[in-house]
From TrEMBL:
The lineage of its organism: Bacteria, Bacillati, Chloroflexota, Chloroflexia, Chloroflexales. GO terms for molecular function: DNA binding. Gene3D superfamilies: lambda repressor-like DNA-binding domains. SMART domains: HTH_XRE (SM00530). PROSITE patterns: HTH_CROC1. Belongs to the short-chain fatty acyl-CoA assimilation regulator (ScfR) family. SUPFAM superfamilies: lambda repressor-like DNA-binding domains (SSF47413). CDD domains: HTH_XRE. InterPro entries: Cro/C1-type_HTH, IrrE_HExxH, Lambda_DNA-bd_dom_sf, Rad_response_metalloprotease. This is Helix-turn-helix domain protein.
């Protein structure tokens, strides 16, 4: 397993073979690392430790013997994305989900994946709309716009992962399976966006890839987009807000709808055109205006980014329970954290006592013993047994 883990971790760090060799201070060559990754040789314990240090992991992470298999679904990238960067994002997404699985095991969190993986076979785009409505019913979401899509997904056991990636990457879905092929976890992974509306659409789109099972004749991307649009803006709700048929739309109205549904102006216009609320002519007219204003990539009044909370909450829990150390916690979060649990431990009575001079420590212990004298007097036998036990050690 070391060959797969070594290559995956190296790619996730965006390192070439030469980068990794240099990070070990050249105690191992790029040629040797290549042999390790191809299973043609095994590193010595010393080399293994140096490789782990260079990759920012523990040596045992390179020897991970779990049979978890991670499957990436419908990787959405643009033609401008290089193969090297594609491999980097693929490995990074895989490692992010693997790290979350390890955290779940550490804290003893049970599998709670309330997502029908490939649960909706469809053979036409309209069926994707019905699937979105059905999932809303299953999750008891009603027909109102989702206040926070990221929270909703995490509440139903999905891992939501935001990557600081290049513009060539949009998103990907992932499933982690055990040795029997049963799903252990699933994730929707998107590029961190300056506009929360784009982020929400990307998440809903990847959710579509997880739950839909389109026939080979159906365009998977169109089906996922139709699902996402319907999930964020149910047809009946959107018609209630804008009417059955419209011949004109005001920019101010579109901006209010963007805020209400958490969807970009472009996605809303496409949704209205798909539902027959506006005709092709009005849709094209608005898309021309959007292009002229430079709004295709930077729309006005961007929405705030919805930050995933499960990872931060779980990492802080693991630190507080001393399941991981602060250094590992910061590596998982990719940033410094307020080590509240660590500071509270350092300020505990025990730590404060140990920082005192010896004479003062004895005085504190004597005062505490005086406070407990009644207990010792009422339980002399127990006290004597404890004292005898301590002296015998």
């Amino acid at each position: 397993m070391i060959n797969q883990r070594l290559r995956q971790l190296r790619l996730a760090r965006g390192m070439t073979l030469d980068d990794l060799a240099q990070a070990t201070n050249r105690i191992v060559t790029r040629q040797a690392i290549s042999k390790y990754e191809h299973g043609q040789a095994q590193p010595s314990p010393i080399v293994l430790q140096r490789l782990a240090q260079a990759l920012g992991v523990r040596p045992t992470d390179l020897l991970d013997s779990t049979n978890t298999q991670i499957e990436l679904i419908a990787y959405r990238k643009r033609a401008t994305l290089s193969k090297r960067y594609h491999d980097h994002i693929t490995a990074l997404a895989t490692e992010q989900l693997r790290a979350r699985l390890r955290l779940q095991r550490l804290i003893g969190e049970p599998i709670r994946l309330d997502v029908p993986i490939y649960g909706y076979p469809i053979d036409q785009l309209e069926a994707a709309e019905a699937a979105a409505d059905d999932l809303r019913v299953r999750w008891d979401l009603g027909k109102t716009p989702l206040v926070n899509l990221t929270d909703t997904l995490e509440d139903h056991g999905l891992h939501v992962i935001a990557l600081d990636a290049d513009n060539g990457f949009d998103g990907v879905a992932a499933i982690a399976r055990d040795e029997h092929g049963e799903p252990l976890a699933a994730a929707v992974i998107g590029r961190r966006s300056r506009d929360g509306a784009r982020w929400r659409m990307n998440l809903a789109h990847e959710l579509g890839h997880l739950v839909l099972q389109p026939t080979s004749q159906l365009d998977e991307e169109k089906a996922a987009f139709r699902f996402a649009s319907a999930f964020l803006a149910p047809a009946t709700t959107l018609r209630t807000h804008v009417g059955e048929h419209r011949h004109h739309l005001h920019l101010g109205e579109l901006l209010l709808l963007k805020r209400h549904f958490g969807m970009s102006i472009q996605a809303l216009l496409y949704r209205m055109q798909t539902l027959g609320i506006i005709n092709q002519r009005l849709y094209r007219s608005w898309m021309v205006k959007i292009g002229e204003q430079g709004w295709r990539t930077n729309e006005p009044e961007p929405l705030p980014m919805e930050e995933p909370l499960w990872l931060r909450r779980t990492v802080l829990r693991a630190v507080a329970e001393e399941l991981i150390d602060p250094t590992e916690a910061q590596a998982l979060l990719g940033e410094s954290i307020d080590l509240l649990a660590e500071s509270s431990r350092q300020d505990s009575l025990c730590h404060r006592l140990l920082r005192q001079p010896l004479a003062e420590r004895h005085a504190v212990l004597a005062a505490q013993a005086a406070q407990m004298v009644d207990l010792y007097q009422t339980s002399p036998n127990v006290a004597n047994e404890v004292e005898a036990s301590e002296h015998s050690q």
